[in-house]
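Work Package 4 report. The design task specified in the project plan requires that, given a folded chain encoded as structure tokens, an amino acid be chosen for each position. We show below one input record used in the internal validation round.
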């Protein structure tokens, strides 16, 4: 189908983009990779009066060390995240999640910031950045703001981003000796996560010192499985399956023609156990 008519802006600097965003207000949509927005526009599910294309702004695509964290520009592609040697050494969970996204074409065009700002409840990155306690950096004409990952996703396709803000950077910690893993049940048609689970596990003297678990695909937004984390703290590895049974505690699992709410809740437990087992095996 053909999208409704719209104004197209292609700023060359971040300042120009911010000025356009401030002038157009909620009429404007930001265009990054376009893999989510453009199909919605072609189906006329979205009809923004204006598009502001971020693709010509330099300096928004990078992966570099920033003290004890790794900073990623919001326009960094999924493909670049997936193959980054720095991430594979220091924060392999994010690279693993990126490699699970869509197909080659999507990974080469889609962007980290675009995916996070879109906040699809079945996207892969949210589980990973929640498990990593990542920070998201935004900018507006009033300056920069840092948002914790746990505060970023507010609902289905909604985030803590303000209408005049642009997501410019994501900061993830170096995971050190902790083990991590991302396990996903792919939807066979879309490649999105029916259920996706990211886990980070630290061990000490054969016991689990701490664990963080992010889950996507199950509820209207990605979430931290705090009941699982609490059940694991200080426990032996034999308790992984029992703890994973709490993966859907406190959330209302989504149901659709592909997977009922009961099935999604069951998958959440299964894939949480698998992610925890893999993460623990990788812990040093």
């Amino acid at each position: 189908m053909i999208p409704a008519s719209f104004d197209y802006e292609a700023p060359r600097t971040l300042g120009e983009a911010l000025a356009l965003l401030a002038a157009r207000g909620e009429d404007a949509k930001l265009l990054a990779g376009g893999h989510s927005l453009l199909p919605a526009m072609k189906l006329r599910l979205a009809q923004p009066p204006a598009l502001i294309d971020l693709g010509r702004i330099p300096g928004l695509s990078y992966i570099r060390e920033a003290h004890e964290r790794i900073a990623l520009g919001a326009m960094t592609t999924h493909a670049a995240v997936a193959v980054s040697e720095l991430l594979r050494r220091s924060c392999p969970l994010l690279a693993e999640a990126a490699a699970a996204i869509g197909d080659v074409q999507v990974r080469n065009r889609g962007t980290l910031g675009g995916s996070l700002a879109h906040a699809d409840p079945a996207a892969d990155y949210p589980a990973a950045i929640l498990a990593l306690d990542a920070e998201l950096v935004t900018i507006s004409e009033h300056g920069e703001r840092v948002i914790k990952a746990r505060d970023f996703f507010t609902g289905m396709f909604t985030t803590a981003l303000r209408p005049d803000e642009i997501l410019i950077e994501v900061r993830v910690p170096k995971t050190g000796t902790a083990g991590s893993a991302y396990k996903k049940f792919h939807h066979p048609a879309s490649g999105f996560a029916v259920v996706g689970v990211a886990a980070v596990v630290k061990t000490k003297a054969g016991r689990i010192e701490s664990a963080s678990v992010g889950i996507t695909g199950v509820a209207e937004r990605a979430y931290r499985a705090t009941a699982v984390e609490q059940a694991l703290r200080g426990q032996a590895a034999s308790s992984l399956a029992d703890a994973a049974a709490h993966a859907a505690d406190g959330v209302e699992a989504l149901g659709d023609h592909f997977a009922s709410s009961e099935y999604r809740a069951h998958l959440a437990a299964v894939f949480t156990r698998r992610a925890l087992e893999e993460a623990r095996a990788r812990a040093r």
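The mean pLDDT is 95. Validation will be extended to a larger panel in the next phase.
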